[in-house]
Design brief:
11% strand, 4Fe-4S, alpha+beta, five-stranded mixed sheet, L-serine ammonia-lyase activity, 17 helices, 2 domains, L-serine ammonia-lyase, EC 4.3.1.17, 7 strands
């Protein structure tokens, strides 16, 4: 598995696969061909169908500037992944000198095909959760120690940076009002939700309102092109920060303990990324919100000081009960139903950790996390492309713009 640095990335919204990935690809190509006369980009599959709402063409054009770029939007998907594009490079004689095939595979990660293809650097020897849990038990170490054993010497500093960036996105979103950019003219509500939470007398309602407001704050920041952290994607970036900020503000957990929880949650996201997908265009929203919910459930279970078996149980429930969740963004924007799903997903994560804490001591969970990851992968394959970030079905079709 790759480093958690490849899972948690600080960037701008609204989409890790449609904005951050294409931006990274364009930067790489520009470094190789700084003297190009012009570029032409063929956007394929989901990049073509929802690229406008996700600002795909905008970010590519901005990255290549001042070199001009033109676009073709082609609904057919390329062979490797639904988020594919071909970049044509033209020299000063206006002759095409190269066509580069590149895929945005989720979470801001990219894959070049052909002579530019590079294999990802493997940092973790273990490939799935069963192997990881067996290893930590044999070595007598915690899941956090397992992460530190495999990452580099500056990784703790990296975790603090990621945690601070998450908290900044929450706090920024809680301060803002008005409407989010785009045709939907969706009103920001995180600030009002937070104020409602402060004025709510019933403790149970107040706590859940706080968590929801934190998730909405980040998701609204993401939808409006603000800075967020992929966890594991932009579209699901509000769930992990909501749980962590709640633990910090309401439960008064110190940052030195929260970075450990952040690392543990990341292990589960890494397992999903390695063995299935975190791309909505490939697996539906179960791959994004479902994965984030599993990560946050594991994070909360670590905060509850549950054992490794119960942490796995919490993460398994977080993913299992999002199976089949469709990715059907209205108008191609990461707004409806995406923002609401971040709030809902954060509450599900809290509930999964609580249920693992209570049920885990009553009976052994019969469904492993790895099993659910396999089921999620197969479910994603079976989902119609209309429900995988194409805006051709579901809510997007019902409320088509």
């Amino acid at each position: 598995m790759e480093s958690l640095r490849e899972l948690y990335k600080i960037g701008v919204g609204p989409s890790s696969s449609h904005t951050m990935g294409p931006q990274r690809a364009a930067k790489r190509i520009l470094e190789l061909f700084p003297d190009a006369l012009r570029f032409h980009v063929d956007l394929h599959g989901s990049l073509a169908l929802t690229g406008k709402g996700h600002l795909t063409d905008y970010i590519i054009e901005k990255t290549f500037s001042p070199i001009p770029v033109t676009f073709s939007f082609k609904s057919d998907a390329l062979s490797y992944h639904p988020n594919g594009m071909i970049v044509h490079i033209f020299d000063q004689k206006d002759q095409e000198i190269k066509a580069i095939e590149v895929y945005s595979i989720g979470g801001g990660s990219i894959l070049f095909k052909g002579d530019m293809e590079e294999k990802p650097k493997e940092v973790y020897k273990q490939k799935n959760m069963d192997q990881i849990l067996k290893y930590v038990e044999e070595q007598g170490i915690s899941l956090y120690d397992y992460v530190l054993e495999n990452e580099d010497d500056s990784f703790v500093e990296f975790l603090y940076k990621i945690l601070d960036a998450m908290f900044q996105s929450v706090e920024s979103g809680l301060k803002k009002e008005g409407t989010i950019q785009g045709k939907l003219k969706l009103k920001r509500v995180a600030k009002s939700m937070f104020q409602q939470a402060q004025n709510t007398r019933r403790e149970a309602d107040r706590e859940r309102l706080f968590i929801s407001s934190y998730a909405y704050a980040v998701a609204e920041e993401n939808a409006d092109g603000g800075q967020i952290v992929t966890a594991p994607t932009c579209g699901a970036s509000g769930i992990m920060p909501a749980i962590l900020y709640y633990c910090y503000k309401q439960l008064h957990i110190e940052k030195k303990d929260l970075i450990k929880a952040l690392a543990v949650g990341g292990i589960f996201g890494n397992v999903v990324k390695t063995n299935a997908t975190i791309s909505g265009a490939d697996g539906g929203c179960q791959a994004e919100v479902g994965s984030a919910c599993a990560m946050a459930a594991a994070t909360m279970a670590w905060i509850y000081e549950l054992n490794n078996s119960l942490i796995e149980y919490a993460a398994e429930m977080g993913l299992e009960h999002n199976l089949g969740l469709t990715c059907d963004p209205v108008g191609g924007y990461v707004q409806i139903p995406c923002i609401e799903r971040n709030g809902y997903g954060s509450l599900r994560a809290l509930d999964a950790a609580m249920l693992a804490k209570q049920l885990g001591y009553l009976r052994k969970n019969k469904v492993s996390f790895d099993a659910i990851v396999r089921v999620m992968k197969e479910t994603g394959k079976d989902l119609s492309s209309a429900y995988k970030e194409t805006s051709l079905g579901g809510l997007a079709k019902e409320f088509g713009l």
